[in-house]
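Most newcomers find our protein records easier to grasp once they have seen one. To make this concrete, we reproduce a full record directly below:

…
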Amino acid sequence: MSNEQARGPGQWLDDVLDVEQVEQNYFRGIATPQGRGRSFGGQVIGQALMSAIRTVSDDRPVHSLHAYFMRPGDATQPVLYQVERDRDGRSFATRRVIAVQAGKPILNLAASFHGEEPGFHHQDEMPDVPGPDELKADHEVGEEMADQLPPEFLKWLRSPRPVEMRPVGLRPPFTREAHAPSHAMWVRLRGGFGEDPAMHRAGLAYTTDYGLLTTCMLPFGKTFTDPDMQFASLDHAVWFHDHFRMDEWLLYVMDSPWSGGARGFNRGQVYSRDGRLVASTAQEGLVRNINFKG
């Protein structure tokens, strides 16, 4: 049994996000444990964010990040992260990060940091949905429907993942019925995740790449394992609003107001179990149907 298997996926995510400083403003993120093929975009975002965090004082937590994917990464290889310290002001700090693999940039990320201070507050209310204790994990639903699901999707469900997901309703390929472009799922990291708030923010940045892009395809019953579809994240943004823990249940609510021209735009809101809106997300991606004739 490998060290990664012995520790479990919840523990190896801590290793994945704990980037190593190789010299001033340069950090290295390890390859995906048991990884193959393309890198998971959330992992590259999480490592890039942690690289930026390591150059900012602890009293200024990250409040937003904006990332652009330029090339697919190789999950079997480490990634080098170069951080530019653009500004350290009295209230805010800003950083830019370039992720490099095989001598070429695969992602760039900008992050902003803000010292906590009091202010007016309002938020959207959390939707009234069943709690995680009333729902089954996606891999459990997959086993019940194994004879109806694509082999590639079953393989993905059965692979080690650090995030447990309990969908509120069925989405493709569990069902091929077209419905409104919105869905929700409860998420949490498997196992303990330590006490460092920065790691929990990076863990959420990692997690928000799950399920978001395919939201815009719900009206069409399509998903990432369909052989006639090409999916790729183009950009990704996260805004952190409040404190949370990634090893406690969070409700990830997603919707898509638009798709067209082989692209789809998606939004997300993340709520703590007690109803606080702790983060918001947005992503545009390539959603190309290779057989589409207009």
Q: What stands out?
A: The chain has six helices and twelve strands. The chain has a mean pLDDT of 94.
